[in-house]
Amino acid sequence: MTKEIQIVNVSSLGNLDAYIRAVNSWPMLTADEEQALAERLYYQGDLLAAKKLILSHLRFVVHVACNYSGYGLLKADLIQEGNIGLMKAVRRFNPAVGVRLVSFAVHWIKAEIHEYVLRNWRIVKVATTKAQRKLFFNLRKTKKRLGWFNQDEVEMVARVLGVSSKDVREMESRMSAQDVTFDPHPANDSENSPLSPTFYLQDSSSNFAHCIEEDNWGDYAADKLSLALKDLDDRSQHIIRARWLDLGNKTTLQELAMYYHVSAERIRQLEKNAMKKLRGAIEV
Questions:
Q1: Helices 264-283 and 208-230, packing angle to 10 deg
Q2: Rounded distance, CA 215 to CA 224, Å?
Q3: Rounded to the nearest 5°, which phi and psi values hold at 189?
């Protein structure tokens, strides 16, 4: 539906105030008018009816979006996300259910706004599961009234929302945290400017010098092995390569014994002697 119908949006009118005036100027529908338009859309696929249903409810989206102004996000963006929810609701609205479109659409509008808030309120998403999302928005409302929770209030909120006290404390901690830039330069040059995490975070899992040492030793050992192999006779070289260096198709002692017309024990002895020579050459 969003592709077939061009709905008025904030950016097309230049500013939010102009947009709000435009959507408030669109006449509201009576119950009979709404029912007739919904039936035309539902049974006939009438896109003009869908457009009228959407335009007449844009003011309601603005009203819902204003309730989420405390999250530090642009109101215009919240309204646009709510409009997406409204269009989804109109597309799914069944006029035979017997409820007004606004009662059906409010859930879709809030769902889109909720998802947008959770994606953009912090760099790191604070809520991922359905239970965490419910806890996040309910906790926001409760904290406006109570402020920082004491233990009794934590238990009360947990009991009302049907979650554990631990979940409430964890979400409260997530909500109180602030995003910190990794920019190596402080925002200003004052002495009180907080340092970026790049100044004090360390990666204890990595040892740069050790990695370089291992790489250098690997190259050195490979070079010495190559030189040591050249000092072996052709048969011993073949046995070592077939047994240890051809990882995709390791040859058995029996196969080499058949190739050289000797016993498998003799191949084992040749392999042992060759490995001893290689080890001695590398360890020097």
A1: 130
A2: 14
A3: -95, 10
Q: Tell me 250's DSSP state.
A: P
Q: What is the CA radius of gyration of the chain?
A: 36
Q: Is 282 exposed, middle or buried (0-12, 13-18, 19+ CB in 10 A)?
A: middle
CATH number for the domain running over 10-121: 1.20.120.1810
* Residue 141 CB coordination number (10 Å): 11
DSSP-derived secondary structure for 87-128 = HHHHHH--GGG-S-HHHHHHHHHHHHHHHHHHHHSSSS-S--
Q: How confident is the model at residue 213 (pLDDT cuts 50, 70, 90)?
A: confident
Cβ contact 19:77 at 8 Å: no
Contact by Cβ (8 Å): 270, 239: yes
Tokens representing 3?
Answer: 């592709």
Q: Render pLDDT for 25-68 as a digit per residue (tens, 0 to 9).
A: 999 999 999 999 999 999 999 999 999 999 999 999 999 999 88
pLDDT at 94 over 90: yes
For domain 214-283, the CATH class is mainly alpha
Axis crossing angle, helix 58-66 with helix 16-25, rounded to the nearest 10? 130
Residues contacting residue 119 through CB under 8 Å, at least 6 positions apart = 125
Instruction: List, in order, residues 6 or more apart from 240 with CB less than 8 Å away.
Output: 229, 232, 271, 274, 275, 278
Q: Under a CB-based contact definition with an 8 Å cutoff, are residues 263 and 257 in contact?
A: yes
Query: Residue 203: is its pLDDT beyond 80?
Result: no
pLDDT score of 194 more than 60: no
